[in-house]
Amino acid sequence: MIDWPQVRAQFPILQQQVNGKPLIYFDSAATSQKPLAVIEAMDHYYRWDNANVHRGLHELSSRATDAFEAARAKIARFVGAGTADEIIYTRGTTEAINLVAGIWGAHFLKPGDVVLITEMEHHSNIVPWQLAAQRSGATLKFVPVLDDGTLDLVAADELLTAEVKLFAFNHISNSLGTINPVVDLCRKARSIGAVTLVDGAQAVGHVPVNVQDIGCDFYAFSGHKMCGPTGIGALYCRTQWLEKMPPWQGGGEMILHVSMERSTYKSGPARFEPGTPPIAGAIGMGAAVDYLESIGIENIAAYDDELTQYAMGRLQELEGIRILGPLTGKRGSLAAFTLAAAHPHDLVTLTNEQGLALRGGHHCTQPLMRRFKAPGTARASFYFYNTRAEIDAMMDILNDAIRFFS
Amino acid sequence: MNDELRDLYQQVILDHSRKPRNHGRLEGECVHVHGDNPSCGDEIDLYVKFDAEGKIEDLKFDGQGCAISQASASMMTSKIKGKSAADAATMREDFRRIVMGDGAPQDEDALGELQLLEGVQKFPQRVKCAMLAWRALEQATAENAAKQG
Prior knowledge:
Low-confidence stretches of chain A: none
Number of helices of chain A: 14
Largest sheet of chain A: 7 strands, mixed
CATH topology of chain B: Sufe protein. Chain: A
Number of helices of chain B: 6
CATH superfamily of the largest domain in chain A: Type I PLP-dependent aspartate aminotransferase-like (Major domain)
Low-confidence stretches of chain B: none
Distance between the termini of chain A: 45 Å
Mean pLDDT of chain B: 93
Strand content of chain A: 15-25%
Shape of chain A: globular
Strand content of chain B: 15-25%
Radius of gyration of chain A: 22 Å
Mean pLDDT of chain A: 96
CATH architecture of the largest domain in chain A: 3-Layer(aba) Sandwich
CATH topology of the largest domain in chain A: Aspartate Aminotransferase, domain 2
CATH class of the largest domain in chain A: Alpha Beta
Shape of chain B: globular
Structural class of chain B: alpha+beta
CATH architecture of chain B: Alpha-Beta Complex
Strand order of the largest sheet of chain B: 1-2-3
Number of strands of chain B: 3
Number of domains of chain B: 1
Structural class of chain A: alpha/beta
Helix content of chain B: 40-55%
Number of strands of chain A: 17
Helix content of chain A: 25-40%
Radius of gyration of chain B: 15 Å
Oligomer: heterodimer
Strand order of the largest sheet of chain A: 4-10-9-8-7-5-6
């Protein structure tokens, strides 16, 4: 049995007032809060172990290197990678996708090829592919989204033709909350010889993720959405691609030998990690994995789900509400909605004055917002440190807002 | 609801946002500009008809956005119609001053009920909402001037 109030107490930031009211932080889909264990791990590193990695023969460099690589191994295990080498550190999900679009795209895409993505992607899983398509002469196509916020799987089957070289899609939509059938989508893509990239920004740390069970070639995720720090994330890169992809950015740390004329490169993730990496960030992300595992990802997923179902039920009591995405069944721990009475920005300005942090806007999914003819939405997103009492408080605040604007 | 919010969302402002004046497209020859706030998705299409001296003969707007951006556009179009280029420029600067809390306006009377949007200065993130229509007007004025040579 998890003592959830005790878990919440591990997040010092939540114990404050905003605008004279207890903070209700419902914006974890944008970035999660950090537990003491993560803050202290990074503090410890800077107080005791700070040194550059992989290049010093002294004690501190050994400690820093050990902690940096131990974090990689933890992250690899957490997402079910085959080896720690399959985890490339990046600045976050966005950089991880850009790395694949940049190097894999430059090396393997040709004119006439198709990159398939979906209508529900975050801009960071759209724009890198637009750029890759422009550079290579490939065509970008989109799997449409149905009115209920799920992917049109019939259309997906029709779009998965022999020309498709890569299929990229999110695991959980940041705007709809839709949980995509990632195993099936990867299997379908594989059957026509297409490579797959899954954007796992909203999934890792929320639901159990096993990249080998999913069967993807690439899986991108961020540390800061799973209780870790900003500026660090990871790309799971199946071993076969690790060996086939040329380097991305050049610099120290990624080379074997450098002469005036040419260089040879390391294999493994180091090839894609030039320069001094975000060492404290990686250690913090490793500490986040330890922390999440101490609670249990299954327990977190169950708590998230119960809270989200409760919120979905209560939100639907509101007059003039329209919630995007699936209204029944499991969904990611978020609800994006519009209210007839107020534009999302006006709503979020009002709720902020009551200490309630919602996100308002297009959530970096403009094509999806156009698809649903929403100028933007307000979004409440939850994590295991949130409570039912906070959802009840949100309902009072939203009802007040509706009365105010009506 | 605190006083700052009541100031921001006064009845007059909410009324303009619900029933925007001069809403729609202008027929005939005019300058058309599109403006947006990429971070929040507010959009405006502004249609302005200038006379030979740059006086604003007529204008209309279309678009979507929050109450502040809609009310600001509605109030701007109501107040600025018939103004000379010089008066419009003064109003633009005065409006900027009151929503940003950046000094006293030069001609309060000309602003009239636009002064009600003063409450925006307490909400710095919303300044760009209030300014959207005005930035579009500035662009339309510049395009008109370029066209006139």
